[in-house]
Amino acid sequence: MRGLKVYAITYLVFLYAPIILLPLFAFNDGTIIAFPLQGFTLDWFVELARTEALHDATVNSIFIAVTTAILATCFGLFAARAGNRHSFPGKGGILGFVMLPLVLPEIIVAVSLLVAMLQVGLSPSIWTVIAGHVLICTPFSIAILNGSFANMDKSLEEAAVDLGETPVSTFRLVTLPLVMPGIVASLLICFTISLDEFIIAFFLSGNEPTLPVYLWGQLRFPGRLPVIMALGTILVILSILLLVTAEYFRRRGLRRAGLEDTGGFL
Amino acid sequence: MSQTARLRRAFRTDSGKGLTLVAPPFIYALVMLAAPLGTILLFSFWTQDFLTIDRTFTLDNYREALSDPLYSELLFRSLRIAGAVTVVTVLLAFPIAYFVSFHVRPDRKSLWLFLITIPFWTSYLIRVFLWRVILAFDGPVNGTLMGLGIIDEPLSWILYNANAVIITLAHAFAPFAILPIFVSLEKIDRSLLEAARDLGESRVATFFRVTLPLAMPGVLAAILIVFIPTIGDYVTPRLVGGSGGTMIANMIQTQFMRLNNAPMGATLAVIAMLSVTVISLLLVFVTRRWTRGR
């Protein structure tokens, strides 16, 4: 099966091509994004530090991403717990509906939220972006936390109750520590999704742009492209760091539950 | 028994607890998804003149959307591009899923899956923009091919048209296709394959008569999960599509933001959603023969 392995490696190169090229241009001493490369420079990163509008966009994005991660993970906890531990009428339909934003085209989610908000008199702001991001992040959180709850031995909770703990203290002392790695993984993934999300932020952010919305505006100016490459490099490195951390916590959760690793996210 | 006691007891049953737990995310989805989608549907039956919205029920928007060649052309092109993206993505993804499931050591599988999903989590805008650089006239693809002497002049059919959109989206949606196929391949009982070989089937025949049919649920999931969101992609057609690669999402955005014609934008959104739903249901129905029973 050597042919298959060669194909797999070629495919990985295809997947990584954009990310590999990105830093090349970020450190390239030339304003045109094309080969051949000119020489090494850090100018574009210095330029980033001096751009005021960029700092505002970064603050907006981080605030949105943190709030979204917390809210979506709370919703994810509720839904994953209900789905794994209880049976109730309409279970499949209700959970399916909560997971729906995972497959809906984002433009549909974005325009319908925009229209509905304008109808009830809300104007676009950071909070409307958060509302949209929580909607699309919750399914990811549920998918991650479903794994945590499914892997958890139910008898541990029953033992705690039998030994006289109340439902609340059982949750705090037994359930929460066992699910904690899943919660951390969910927080990090939701943060990453929100930080990178463009369409919903584009429609709902009004005059408080997020990082991707700012980036989109800059793409029109050819002279700004090297700076964008520098910004992109930082964003990609940040995403990868967050993902590696999330993966670390996910695996730790599996080990805590005494299970073999079966695969990645989703 | 008092009202409150009865209520308290209802909450203590298993289904009561389950419903209470699921209520917050469900109500959120109702308010933030179902209600807005309902609003869009309402809007599609209204009309707008500059900034005032006329709330009388009319089918004019649908009549215009279906009769104006501009809109139908965009819709069919979107369906065509999304279809091509789906075929390309799933065909490219299957061998990878097969490789990871059947030929990678079990303790290495999660590392491979992690490597496959990393690019997907990095900034979508940046990734799409870099495809513009890669496919450009003076980009690395043309440079390499010319350097190797395979072509004499830069290829012009790989940027600012539908092909560029297909390449870029096939890249962006790769993990969405690989993961479901991988999961269904992992579920296959390996002894079935041994049985087929023992009974005299060749390697190729075993693949087509045992492995592939058993992997069909995953393939169908991959097809749907790629096809549905790509119809509504906005960024890729805008950045690499040129005028020949514009899709329906770009027109929806134009109607809402530029032309101040929210009802027409809503109508196009509804029509796009309906087409996707009908095609998806047809697909599920047609492939039922191969995917049921598991």
UniProtKB/TrEMBL annotation, chain A:
The keyword Transport applies. The chain crosses the membrane at residues 12-37, 57-80, 92-120, 126-145, 178-205, 225-246. Residues 58-246 form the ABC transmembrane type-1 domain. Gene3D superfamilies: MetI-like (1.10.3720.10). The keyword Cell membrane applies. It is found in: Cell membrane. It is a multi-pass membrane protein. Its main location: membrane. One of its GO terms (biological process) is transmembrane transport. Pfam families: BPD_transp_1. GO terms for cellular component: plasma membrane. Keywords: Cell membrane, Membrane, Transmembrane, Transmembrane helix, Transport. Belongs to the binding-protein-dependent transport system permease family. CysTW subfamily. This is ABC transporter permease.
UniProtKB/TrEMBL annotation, chain B:
Keywords: Cell membrane, Membrane, Transmembrane, Transmembrane helix, Transport. Its main location: membrane. It comes from the Bacteria. It is a multi-pass membrane protein. Gene3D superfamilies: MetI-like (1.10.3720.10). GO terms for biological process: transmembrane transport. The keyword Magnesium does not apply. GO terms for cellular component: plasma membrane. CDD domains: TM_PBP2. The chain crosses the membrane at residues 21-46, 79-100, 112-137, 157-185, 206-228, 266-286. Residues 75-283 form the ABC transmembrane type-1 domain. It is found in: Cell membrane. The keyword Membrane applies. Pfam families: BPD_transp_1. Belongs to the binding-protein-dependent transport system permease family. CysTW subfamily. PANTHER family: INNER MEMBRANE ABC TRANSPORTER PERMEASE PROTEIN YDCU-RELATED (PTHR42929:SF1), INNER MEMBRANE ABC TRANSPORTER PERMEASE PROTEIN YDCU-RELATED-RELATED (PTHR42929). This is ABC transporter permease. It comes from Rhodophyticola porphyridii.
